[in-house]
Design brief:
Oligomer: single chain
Distance between the termini: 51 Å
Radius of gyration: 20 Å
Largest sheet: 6 strands, mixed
Number of helices: 9
Amino acid sequence: MTEAIHKSGFVNILGNPNVGKSTLMNRLVGERVSITTSKAQTTRHRIMGIVNTDTMQIVYSDTPGVLKPNYKLQESMLGFSESALGDADVLLYMTDVMEKTEKNEDFLHKVQKAECPVLLLINKIDLTNQTELEKLVAKWHELLPQAEIYPISAQANFNIDIVKKKIEEMIPPSPPYFEKDALTDRPARFFVTEIIREKILLYYQKEIPYSVEVVVEQFIEERSKISIRSIIIVERESQKGIIIGHRGQALKKTGMMARKDLEKFFDKKVFLEIFVKVEADWRNRDNILKQFGYEL
């Protein structure tokens, strides 16, 4: 009896902001590894989610939405997306039924030159009709003739299994790149910062969520509980006041929502302390960005 050949590969998800990349990532991995909100720029890093079977390891990669940078943080975010073009075994280029096909043509030209197989996923198909969808598929076929096109709804889990099967067919023979019990390449602290930042994106309006970074100062894990001390970094004193809110109510609510999600994520009791600190213009300061794990 011949031994089954082991397959491993990197499947990178790319696209403009707000098309549903993180929702798709969580569907494909079967776990919540990427935070999801309706706001653009929710994902700032490149996050890997790893799916293992006895004969296969698929390393999915969620990337920030592609945008024209206005400050150094966004330059780093674009860098994460561009790096994902070069090291994929399969590229998932994601769009949706509302997005204009000519949006971000510069990046699309790079996708057109990709040397690996490309699957074009048209998301949110529940928001259109068959006639409009067919027109959109024809347009995308002209723009990315080398791509196989799949209309999907990541939210409703429609056609995701078909995409998964196609990906599994395309993964090359290779030994695993990570331990077979690994779910992600990120440490536990990273998910603490992401879950707190998700609550800030959901709870605060306007510029506030985009001016915020979260740092974990202390993470002590015991058998039945985890004690966490974290800091929310803002750029201005006025933002600090908004984050804390009247008599600390806004910060208290954010902490409570984050703690509930962290307890679900770690399946343990969580004690969470959150403080707020001003770090002027941090989104444009190289030393601070490097400290926060952004590549420049």
